[in-house]
Amino acid sequence: MNFFEHQEIARRSTRRLIVLFAIAVVLIVIAVNAAAAAIYLGFLAPAGFARTTAALPIGFYFVNTCMVLGLIGGGTLFKMNALATGGEAVANLVDAREVDMTTSDLLDRRLVNVVEEMAIASGTPVPRVYVMDNETAINAFAAGHSINDAVITVTRGALTRLSRDELQGVIAHEFSHVLNGDMRLNLRLIGVLHGLLIVALAGRLLLELGGRSRGSSSSSSQGRSGGSALAVLFFAGIALWILGYIGVFFGRLIKSAVSRQREFLADASAVQFTRNPDGIGGALRKIGGLGEATGLGTRIDHPQAETLSHLFLGAARPSFVRGLFATHPSLKSECSASMVVSRNFCRHPKMRWRCRWAGWSRRLHPRARALRFSLCRRPAGVLAKPQRALRPARCRRSLDCSHLPQQAHRRRAT
Q1: pLDDT-based confidence at residue 226 (cuts at 50, 70, 90)
Q2: Catalytic position from the list 135, 174, 263, 334
Q3: Of 317, 345, 373, the domain-final residue
Q4: pTM score, whole prediction
Q5: Does one domain contain both 409 and 333?
Q6: Is residue 353 located within the same domain as residue 265?
């Protein structure tokens, strides 16, 4: 299986999982209708009617379906409206700091350079860059509705612990999410999960209303009709609360599966953008070593980490059910997949000649790897302008031949 087949398989798997998500919403609607029918027949059916579905009012299922879809849709739209500004809203949600593109700070400057390089390699506009200064683990994410409002956010740990090649692999991984439409999908998943949670919150609200009404009715000694109304509120609240959290359970399950598939695709695309399998592979190995040594790995301590867990490069929070709720594949399987992709990368006809150039330059020039993207490693004041002035076609050719000796590389780039 070659590199591009890996990408297509990951896309097909993601489409199947999105269909499963829609099926889960339909099943929740059916379950709520069944619970509502049971409550109505048990407490509200008119006297003299058999307790069958024939006793249900006309349009009973339609009204219930509209109410449930209204709750889910309303909760989803509310969350999506909160994230309407795209990547900037998500970055502000985690208290990230925007990096000035003309900064003279060494770590920030290196990050900006790498982001600009990957923007050229992927043929996309340069996104805004953010840093989570309070997070010492190695992690990153891309967020936004489109490439025009996308942002790339990395943790302080990624800046200080990763080498330039490894940081380049991580940024290329995030650019894959920008190009493959993962950002829009991830924001929609946040919205839909919030909509499913609203169903559970509505159930809890009914339970609280039933509890308050019970206290007032006991003091005023209301009759049988009041007791029936309390029972309806209680059982309706219980049903919505249970079914809502069951929906959240399966929603997170499917979200995790979608995220794991997209991570494999992003790792494959990182190899495509950097022409260097050691970049993302080295970053994953370093994450594994950091996790074993300090317990940090990719862990994020921010309160919004669970909500945004599927956006990050690595698992922001450990899953209590390993494998099921893990939003990312295990490091072992991810490293193995990246190794398989890197072995097959050079076998594809489109990439074979590039890999030959890479191999020859490594043998003839041991320092060739250090000279990659040498155009983007000039002093800080010279960086931004020449890169933007370059024509995209020439930039792509220069990146394709990034393993050539320095003199030839600069000649072709300029």
Answers
A1: low
A2: 174
A3: 345
A4: 0.66
A5: no
A6: no
